[in-house]
Each structure stands twice: as structure tokens, then as C-alpha cells.
Amino acid sequence: MSEKEITRGVVAYFKSDQWKELIRQLTQTEEELYHTHVYVENKVEAGSICRLFQRYFKRMGLPLDRKIDLVSPGPDILGAHSVHPHDPDRVLYIPHFDFFWKYNPNVVLQPSDPAKLGEEGSNIPTWGKKYMDNYYSKFDFKGVGPLEIRKIRQYFQSAHWKKGLRLVEDPAYAHVHINVEINFDPIILEAFALEALKEIGWRVDHIAPAVYHVPEGYQGKIVFLTAYPEEVWDICWGYVPNVAIRPAEKRFVGYFPEDGDIAYDAWTQKAVDELTTRDKYESLTDEQIEEILEQVL
After folding, report:
1. Are 172 and 258 in contact (CB under 8 A)?
2. Are 141 and 264 within one domain?
3. Which of 41, 45, 190, 231: CA 20 to 30 A from 277?
4. Nearest to 126 by CA among 23, 237, 38, 190
């Protein structure tokens, strides 16, 4: 494809209904939204996507407040992970979004067919307070008293917790889930996790509740966007009625770290590197990005 064809294709995507819906989600004030997945077919190189997003949202007045990570969440899928436009004066959280794609040499950039690449029949699913309140209503969360508090504090001093944080910082992994089983409201888990992170000097910019897809359906998680270290990682929880808290004793997703420990899921940097070099992507020049932005903003 020529440079002009690539530019036209990207401009057309930014005028698509899918992208307009994403912008609506980022700027609406009717409900607090937490997280969005965007699914596309694409042949624009990942670094160009990241530079384009950085300049797009800066020009829009919502500059990104953190780096964009690349992940490979599944076979043949790449993604710009946890893109987070930010307005420090806004009270409602602006959802961070993941921009996932499969390589298609016959297109430039276009929304995916949800039946082939998407979730629950959508190529732009989002999760906010209404969704999470409904999700939580499915569980009979138990009360937390002095005994449970001691068990929770013990967990955040445990080898499982410490190993999880080491995995988060390990450059071999692009994204990490620390998997636990609990029987209490996850907002309590969030509060104790935040306390434990502050004790070791980790700075947390944002925390967002969400769900994610496992073979059995959707499962709960808490997303941590940390400033130091600058990582995005999750505590994922499964409900077990008679257990206050423990490391997961069954597979959640099944992307285990190298040692095969089922109490974590860890997506490798190696998978990202393989996909970014396997296919013939098209790069955008700075001049192309500027031309695109002039036409869409």
C-alpha cells in the first residue's frame, strides 16, 4: 500500500462508529466507566499506533498519563494495553482502554467483526459501575471481622503476594495477574492491597474494578495502574464461600509463568516480540501522523 492509502485508511478509522463510541465513553458523564476493550483488524505498526494515540489525545486535551504497554493476550492477538487519557480536573474516572488487533494485510485499520474478534457480541465492550454492581450482586460476600482481618494481613505478607510483585517487575512478562480466592467484598481486598503497596514504596495512580474472560465466563479483578513501578497489573479473584483468602488453587486463565505456578497468569514479552516481527506492518511517519490529526481533530 502507498503512504497515501495508509493515511486515508487511518483517517477513515478515526471517523468510524467504533472510534466515535470510544470517544463517547471517554467523555460521557452519565456513569463512571472503568475499562474498555477495542477490537480491530490492523496492519499499522505497534509503535506507530502508540505515537498516534499519544499525539491524538494530547491534542484532544486528554493527554495520556502513563506509557502504553504492548501485550499479546491470546494467539495472533497484539494490543496497546492500558491506554489512559487523563483529565486531572475531572471527578469521574476516565476509563483506560486496551486496543487489541489481529494482523490483516488486506486492510489498514478497521473495526473487527465481533463474531470473529470481540466479546459478548461486541467489538467495543466496556465495564462501569452499573455492570460491576450487577456482577457483585451474584455473590454472597461474607462479613469481615478481626479474624478475617488478621488472615488478610497475613496474606499480604505471604510468599504468594511477594512472588506476584516480583513477576510484575520481571521484564520477561508483559502483563501479570496475581490470582486469589476470597469470600468478602473485593473493595476490602483493594484497601488492604493499597496499604501493603504503600508500605513497600509502590505508588498507585489509579485502581479500577473490572472483569475479564476466563474459560468459564467472566471473573472479577482489580486493576492497578502503578506509577512506580510504571506497570499495569491485576489482582484477580474467585469467590469461594468458606475461604477468607488464599492463593488460587485452580487455573484461572491458564497462561502460567515459566515455573508453571497455577496461582498466577503471566503473558510473556516473548510472545509480543514474535508477533511484532512476524508480520509485515506499515509504519507511520511524523508527517503522516500530523496529516491524520489535522483531518480528524
Report:
1. yes
2. yes
3. 231
4. 38
Contacts of 114 (CB under 8 A, 6+ apart): 39, 121, 122, 123
User: What dihedral angle (degrees, nearest 10) is formed by the CA atoms of 165, 170, 174, 178?
Assistant: -20
Do 264 and 216 belong together in one domain?
yes
Residue-number span of the structural domain to which 208 is assigned: 134-268
Predicted pLDDT at 167: 98
Question: pLDDT value at position 128?
Answer: 97
Strands (DSSP E) found in the chain: 33-42, 69-74, 77-83, 96-103, 109-111, 126-128, 173-182, 203-214, 217-228, 231-239, 245-247, 264-268
Q: What is the mean pLDDT of each run of 10 residues along the chain (297 residues)?
A: 94 98 97 97 98 98 96 96 95 96 97 96 97 97 97 98 98 98 98 98 97 93 97 98 97 96 97 96 97 97
116 and 21 share one domain: yes
245 and 140 in a single domain? The answer is yes
Return the closest-CA partner of residue 96 out of 217, 223, 190, 203: 223
Number of domains into which the chain is organized: 2
Grid coordinates representing 78 are 497484539
Q: How far apart are the first and last CA of the chain?
A: 24
Query: Does residue 229 have a cis bond before it (omega within 30 degrees)?
Result: yes
112, 220: one domain? no
Q: How far apart are CA 117 and CA 64, in angstroms?
A: 26
- Residue 119 has phi, psi (to 5 degrees) of -140, 135
Return d(Cα 118, Cα 97) in angstroms, integer: 14
Co-location of 64 and 148 in the same domain: no
Task: Let me know: does 111 contact 52? Beta carbons within 8 Å.
Answer: no
